[in-house]
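User: I'll paste a sequence; please echo it back and then give the predicted structure.

Assistant: Echoing your sequence first, then the prediction.
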Amino acid sequence: MQIKKGVILNGLNIKMRKVLTNANQVWALHGKELCVTAGLDGAHSAGSLHYYGLAVDLRTRYFSGEVKTQIVGELQRALGNKYDVVAHRTHIHCEYDPKEVI
């Protein structure tokens, strides 16, 4: 696994270890090395879980759109419903965000 220069993972919540472990495996299955492009660093939307150590962004520029969609599905299945896996134009965003059932 690579970590982009300047990315801050110190302070990442332990719940994100599952994301990094599973993403590393999924990327390897697709012949690429995982690269984390954002953690607690960078500018994100107000209230972003990045600021709480509950989100990371993962590089996808070397995947076609079809493969990127496949990876989102594979990663979501591996992580379960307490995690959100969202494809953006330049990366995949993963966050720990359990939904409270009322």
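Residues 2-96 form a domain with the Muramoyl-pentapeptide Carboxypeptidase; domain 2 fold (CATH 3.30.1380.10). The CA atoms of residues 64 and 70 lie 10 Å apart.
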